[in-house]
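Friendly challenge for the regulars: who can give me the structure tokens for this chain first? No prize, just bragging rights.
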Amino acid sequence: MGRLMPFLFLLYIVAYLDRINVSFAVLQMREQLHLTDRVYGRAAGMFFAGYFFFQVPSNLVLERVGVRRWIAGLMLVWGVVSCSMIFIRGPISFYVLRFLLGAAEAGFFPGMILYLKRWFPVSARARAVAWFMTANPLAGVIGSPISGALLGMRGGGLSGWQWLFLMEGLPAILLGTAVYWVLADSPANAKWLSEEQRSWLIDELESERRASSGEEKGAVWRVLGSPRVWLLSLVYFGIPACMYGITLWLPTAIHALSGLSNSHIGLVAAIPYLLTAIAMVLMGTHSDRSGERRWHNALAGFSAALALVLAAYSHAPLGVIAGMSVAMLSAQSMVGPFWAMATSRMSGLAAATSIAVINSIGNLGGYFGPYIIGLARSASGGFRGGLLAIGAVMALSACLALVVGTNRDAQRAP
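First reply, four minutes later:
Bragging rights claimed.
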């Protein structure tokens, strides 16, 4: 884990930062480009429309050409698209560029989940995914203060929000060039492993593949017709709906409720991200040690739903922000146990297809969450309606996790 995870972690920090930096950019874009809350909510969610249409094809190509080549190419493309956000002039260009960014990033996350499956046995997978996914909140910890500070930049005929997109898009281009040389497609190609380590890991993973091959023959049509895959997609729908609904509106909420400056908003927004990172690691570690998946998902989902209800009806600014933060923490804590549960019976091409289907359909929640909050704010000027809608979705996800999760998904660590 120590050899792979730091680099994968860095890649995902850059990917996640390019998704969410719009939440800070809009603090200036709203006034300069005359954008409404509904336009911003739709544009923020448009990223996931691109995700939906391009994720399965992208992951199938990755299975054919290998991780290094495909991920390197994707990072170069999305880095260019992210930098091109400086050319936004109105709603249409905003929608188009966010869609293209989602399309370019579509294969990254499912590709990384597939990659982790090829390297980590099931007994350590939730922990590995949880560590990898802590890049999400840590991107907020690192990126929030930086994004707030970049909004104060001027020069070269660019506004602060344009400097933000430009400076935060460049790392994807630079790291994309490094992926090909740093990553190995499988343990068999890893020069840093000893012969003993390589043989043990290959044997362990092959044993798991054979154990699951009776249920997953690698036929794509069987994956698409699997009720379990569709139920898992519905469970996952709630996680991005809550994650991105909160993440992409948190700076706006802090600004509206507190009136802080952009730089101070960046510092305040970093706090819930830090707490979320800690919670994700603890949840993933406990899930692996106990071998339990479905109740870890369900209890976190119910916790997020309750926090959103409390935030919706709170009259104190601190109560609203605290409730939103707990909901984000709870939703993201589900990710490690969820993907360990979801990938427990997959192998080969079926694994690539299943991961992509679940992630593409589930990530439509990433469109729903930001958009429903923007729609509610346009109608009422507040956050209550949007928070309640996302809370209902999280409660449904928690219930479905209890249905789709079984004892067969529990694999205890040795």
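Confidence is low (pLDDT under 50) at residues 410-414. The chain has one domain: 8-183+200-210+225-409. Your move, everyone else.
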